[in-house]
Amino acid sequence: MKVEVKQMSETHIAYVRHMRGYQDTQGLREAWDKICKWAGAHDFIGPKTLFIGISHDDPEVTPVDKCRTDACVTVPAGTRGSGEVKVTALPAGKYAVFSFEGKPEEIKGAYNFVYGKWLPESGYQPVDSPCYEIYRNEPDKDPEGKHIFDICLPVKPL
Fold first, then answer.
1. Which residues contact 15 (CB under 8 A, 6 or more apart)?
2. Which residues contact 146 (CB under 8 A, 6 or more apart)?
3. Between 20 and 30 A from 136 (CA), which of 67, 107, 148, 150?
């Protein structure tokens, strides 16, 4: 995996939280449908919109059916949420950005590389803010079903 450590700006996001685990693909799709419909109705979806996923829990620690995921879209500063749609900001700072391209079954290995190999050898430590993924494609529309995204891990020097 290609990695680049870079300074990233604060990013304002609207999100819908999914609380039923990473394996609940139907529930995850529903969260994405809700945030995309809301963002579309507010004219927030355009060529510069980023689609971001935040997975809050480690399935090695948290029961898989309790893992929380946020389906997010970028929005302008000052945007207000409504109903299930909440608004927050991802903090500015230094991030290790890993480019991933692969099948769903390879994602766990990518995270094992990030946290188990790269991080201990990097001279960096994680910062207490969320790691997130910036999606670069729609896997359902990819002929090989590949996922293409950047893993963005907030870091600071040891």
1. 35, 54, 70, 71, 72, 73, 85, 86, 87, 88
2. 101, 102, 103, 137, 139
3. 67
| Total structural domains within the chain | 1
CA distance 16 to 86: 7
**H or E element at residue 64:** none
Range of the domain at 124: 2-157
Query: 68 forms bridges with which residues in the sheet?
Result: none
Q: Which helix or strand (DSSP H or E) is residue 89 part of?
A: strand 86-90
**What are the pLDDT digits (tens) for 29-67?**
999 999 999 999 999 999 999 999 999 988 889 988 888
* pTM over 0.85, yes/no: yes
**Helix (H/G/I), strand (E/B), else coil: 58:** coil
Q: Which of 39, 42, 34, 6 is nearest to 18 (CA)?
A: 34
Query: Which comes out higher in pLDDT, residue 26 or 21?
Result: 26
